[in-house]
Amino acid sequence: MSDPSGEPSFCTDEAPLSAPLAHGAAVTAHFQDHGQLRYAARGALVTATQVGTWVAPVSRIMWVPPYAVHSSKAYGETRSRCCRCP
Q1: Are the CB atoms for 69 and 4 separated by under 8 Å?
Q2: 61-74 burial, b if ≥16 CB within 10 A, otherwise e?
Q3: From the CB of residue 22, how many other CB atoms can be counted at a distance below 10 Å?
Q4: Rounded distance, CA 29 to CA 68, Å?
Q5: CB-based burial of residue 80 (10 Å sphere; 0-12 exposed, 13-18 middle, 19+ buried)?
Q6: I need a labelling partner for 58 at 20 to 30 A (CA). Which of 3, 25, 41, 44 fits?
C-alpha cells in the first residue's frame, strides 16, 4: 500500500467516482471536502489513512470523513463506487 502521508491532492467534483481499476492499480493520497461512502461492486478496495487501513470486498462499505487523506489499491479487477455525502 502506498504511504498516504505524502502531499495530498484535492479531489474535485469532476474526478471519476466509479472508474474500473485493474488488479494492483493504486490511487495516490488525496482528500475531499465532503464525506464519502466507498465500496467495491467487484473485486476489493483497500483504503489506507494515517490512522489505519480498511478492506472493502464486495458487499462491504467504508466511510471516509471529509478532509481525511487516503490512498487506495485495487485487488482483482475492481469496480469501485463512491457516494458523496455533504
Answers
A1: yes
A2: ebebeeebbbbbbb
A3: 10
A4: 10
A5: buried
A6: 3
Residue-level pLDDT at 18: 63
Alpha-carbon span 40 to 48, nearest angstrom: 15
Residues 6+ apart with CB under 8 A from 85: 34, 35, 36, 37
Q: What is the mean pLDDT of each run of 10 residues along the chain (86 residues)?
A: 46 58 94 89 93 90 93 92 80
Cell of 59: 458487499
Cell of 45: 478496495
pTM score, whole prediction: 0.74
C-alpha span between 86 and 77 (Å, rounded): 29
Distance separating alpha carbons of residues 52 and 70, to the nearest angstrom: 10
pLDDT score of 81: 83
